[in-house]
Give the backbone structure.
Amino acid sequence: MFFDEKRRTFVVCGRQGRAHAFTAEGRHVTSFVLPAGGAEFRVRTNRWRPIRPEEFAPFRAALTPAPDGEGTGEAAGATPTAGPLA
């Protein structure tokens, strides 16, 4: 997972070159196709940075369904990684 410094969103890289951007509150912003090497380029040019472990917990909590039904659950089970999610 990455943080987009320009758009201030969390970016989750998925299967088949897809990427998904979310706000810190867990709202899905957009999905897009990420060309091969695209994530590395954005990190190299300081547009994106890998998220830190302390940033991941609140973001994951925002996406995981709460007992009262709050949250979207879109990234439930996700783990922090600098590369594509399995």
Notes: The chain has two helices and five strands. The radius of gyration is 12 Å. The chain has one domain: 2-63.
